[in-house]
Amino acid sequence: MSWLKRNSFLGALILATTMIVGLESWLLWQTRLDASRALTGLDQKKREREDLQQRLPQPTAETARMLADEFAGTSAKLLDARAAISKRAGRTATPTPVKSIDAYFEIARFVETERAAARRLNIAIRSDEHFGFSSHASEGPHVEILSAVLGQRAAVEKLIDALFTAGPVALIGVQRERPVAILQRKSQDQARLGKSVGAKPETHRDEPADFFDPVYSISLRATGKIEANAFRVEFSGQTTALRNYLNALAGSEMPFFVRSVEVEPLADLPKTTIASGASSAPVPIVTNSLSRFRVTIELLESVDEIEGTAR
Amino acid sequence: MVSPRTLILECGPDRVSLGVFSRPAQRLCLHELAVQPFPSAAGRNREAQWLENTSAALRSLRKRIKSRGPVTLLLPARFCLTKFIKLPRVEPMQREKILRFEAAQNIPYAIEEVIWDSVAVNETETEAEALLAAAKRDSLDALCLAVQLADFEPGRVLPTTFATLAGFRLISRNGGENFLGVNLGAQSTTLVLMGKSGRFALRTFALGLDENADPAPAGTETQPRVEKREPFSTRLLQEVSQSLLHFQWRSAMVKPDCVCLSGIPAGLSGLSEPLEGKLQVPVRLADFRTLVDFQKNSIGTGAEESGAALVDMIGAAVIYFEPDQPVVNLLPPRLRERAGLRARRPWLVAAAVLAAMILIPPLVHFRSLRDEALKKTRAIERESAPVRGWDRRNQENLRLLAGMNQDLALYRDTVARRGSWLRLMSGLQDQLGRVEDVWLDKLQLATAVPGEPIKLLVSGRMLDRAHPLAKVSQETYSRVKQLLTHLADLPSVAGVEAERFDSQQAGLLKFDFVLVGEKQGPL
User: Fold this and answer.
1) Closest Cα to residue B361, out of A311, A27, A103?
2) Is there a contact between A125 and A86 (Cβ–Cβ < 8 Å)?
3) Residue B248 neighbours by CB under 8 Å, 6+ apart
4) Nearest to B356 among A24, A49, A63 (CB)
5) Does A189 touch chain B (CB under 8 A)?
6) CA distance linking residue B227 with residue B216, whole number of Å
7) DSSP for residue B368
């Protein structure tokens, strides 16, 4: 302290110089840091520029315009492709009943109509045939699955009509996918839907014979793109009936897609014989039996919309 | 050009004078002169009273003169001892030792109690002289403290004798003659004899106008008191004569060619004629008007206007502005250190400024580097911004296009698969018809394995129409093989595998195989 008192000027000078140098040092450090950051930023900008120059396609106004054009063209093609399914899907114009009882009467009318058609065309069916809708033989579908069931009914009607025109010997049965499963897939909130729909029975009398579980490995279903409603039709007859049926499905307005065909002999049906060269009496070497055909069909539906527009 | 100013503070026995000098254009200039006499009632012979009066006068002068800066303090002759010492021409270090020894021998006080200094003068080829000056430390400290308390900064303490010498050297400059200067003071008189060669001799004796002066301190030659005193001029003439003889004897100096009188104007009148008569040389009064510019109202008129009374102050100013003058400094070490520090202030400030500025170049460098980088970054950004926008749009459109193409392929593939089963079944029927006499009994879907192609289990029979009652012929086998080969070529079929044949039944060949679907373009 005594030195400081004796040399106040020198002390003040040293203090001031130290403070100025300290301030300058801080400024220098800060400026150097800023300069370093600025240089790093400059390097990044240069690299970004080089990267942009090497981008493919080259980011130019011309390229952007060409891509926009291509985007528009592809959008149109996609719309056409989707329209191909949507157009084929020209759903039946049957108004959707809003009440379960209305649906019941519509299904009953459908069953009676098809039974009458079978009788008229001499196609054997079971006496209690309900064409996959036995569950609704005495009551309508629950309101939650009303639209899905009616959609299935419309599709089955088309499938039966096509089958009857193909000339089968007998209709063995029709099965469909469970509507709840379809709704669950369609719903974005599966958990809520599963709780509110899945927890409830489809009807008071859920007939297991109406339903089958589709084999997903052969399904055309594409998540988020294509939804499918599966049906299985079993009938007996000659191969011609199968060919006619397949042709009819392929030419249908509705987007029916055959996913599998299974054939097995129907042994207890009337047999045919071929002549034997050695004897005048007919000797059955190969039974000309009828076959039992099981055709699995999917009715497709496009579910997605074309995303965005070209920028 | 502004010339630096110096303050000369002369502490006399009955007054304190302060002069402010500068030397623009190599010519001294007295800007201000302030004289503060002591109160007449004050006992001037008493040391304590003198110090008290000096302190009061200093404070009064401080109020009148606002100039700042280091002060040259003229030490009264009675405080100071001056003595010539002959020295051999030896090395400076040895000379220093001799000087210390001579100082101890010649100063009548313990060396620790005094502050002393010396300067080499009158050097010849064989020998040299040193002019030694010493003053008591306590007296100096007390005087310097009084000066400091009056807010002056003592920069140098100069014995009056040296100032008188410098004053007379200024008068005799370019004179080319032997010159005797007589400076008459209130309590002492100083004689300065200067030769043509520049050699000089000094003597101060306690003979002044103030007859009641205290005896001079040791070293100052005193006039023995007598009961009946002779007239002042007579005693002065005797002292001058004796001094000249002493100078001639000691320094081999010749008689002066002229005499110059300075000092208190009242004492100078009536001295010229007796001196001329005694020494037989012309005697004149000191006149500084041709040598020094006196600013208006700086000094009085009449007898004072020649500046003869200011020889000591002018001499001190000459010493300040002309470093080649013989000079000593009796400033106490503590104040000398402060004065030294003060003298080094400009250098210290310069060093501090240099130290403070040393970081400025790198600072400027980094700032310019940063500014340049930012400028370039902005330029690149301006250039890249639209390109980045195009690229972003392109990438987004490409992403959308990829998704759309994927969807398009999916939809097209799906639509194409609508008739796949029809084509397969038609192909089967065609191949069976081509081979003839063959039936398919069973067509089943094998258990699907995820990721694996569809497999169809097929069973059938072939009729050997040529050998209906025997085992099937080789021809039938060939037909079956042909059938299977053709089936493998069917659309959506990758191949046939796991073929199995049964010919147990006469005329019939049962067969089983697996149709493997294609991975690309499946059913």
Assistant:
1) A27
2) no
3) B254, B255
4) A24
5) no
6) 19
7) H
Q: What is the pTM of this model?
A: 0.55
H-only helix segments in A57-145: 61-88, 100-121
Instruction: Using the predicted structure, report yes or no on whether residue B32 has a pLDDT greater than 50.
Output: yes
Q: What share of chain B is helix, strand, coil (3-state, %, to 5)?
A: 45, 25, 30
Asked if A285 lies within 8 A of B414 by C-beta distance, the reply is no
Residue B379 is which amino acid? Answer: A
Q: What is the pLDDT of residues B434-470, one digit of tens each?
A: 888 888 889 998 887 777 888 899 999 888 878 877 7
What pLDDT is recorded for position A275? 34
Q: Looking at beta carbons, which residues of chain B come within 8 Å of A16?
A: 352
User: Model ipTM?
Assistant: 0.77
Tokens 């089967």 label which residue?
B428
Our CA-based measurement puts residue B72 at a distance from the nearest CA of chain A, in whole angstroms, of 21
User: What's the full length of chain B, in residues?
Assistant: 523
Round to whole Å and give the CA distance between A186 and A198.
13
Which runs of consecutive H residues, i.e. helices, occur in B417-497? 420-435, 474-488
- pLDDT tens readout for residues A169-178: 999 999 999 9
Do the strands B283-285 and B292-294 form a parallel or antiparallel pair, or are they unpaired? unpaired
B212 burial via Cβ count (<10 Å: 0-12, 13-18, 19+): exposed
Cβ neighbours of B376 in A, within 8 Å: 42, 45
Mutation target for A interface from B370, B438, B504, B510: give the one with most A CBs within 10 A. Answer: B370
Quote the CA–CA distance of A28 and A24 in Å, as a whole number.
Answer: 6
A247 neighbourhood in chain B, CB within 8 Å: 422
Distance from CA of B372 to the nearest CA of A (A): 9
Among the partner residues A239, A242, A310, nearest to B397 by beta-carbon distance: A310
- Percent over 90 (pLDDT), chain B: 24
In chain A, residues with a C-beta closer than 8 Å to the C-beta of B401 are: 67, 70-71, 74
Q: Is A215 in contact with B417 (Cβ distance < 8 A)?
A: no
Whole-angstrom distance, CA of residue A261 vs CA of residue B429:
14
Q: Residue B202 contacts by C-beta under 8 Å, 6 or more apart in sequence?
A: B82, B84, B131, B161, B165, B190, B191, B192, B193
Among candidates B186, B269, B238, B266, which has minimal Cα distance to B17? B186
* pLDDT computed for residue A67 by the predictor: 87
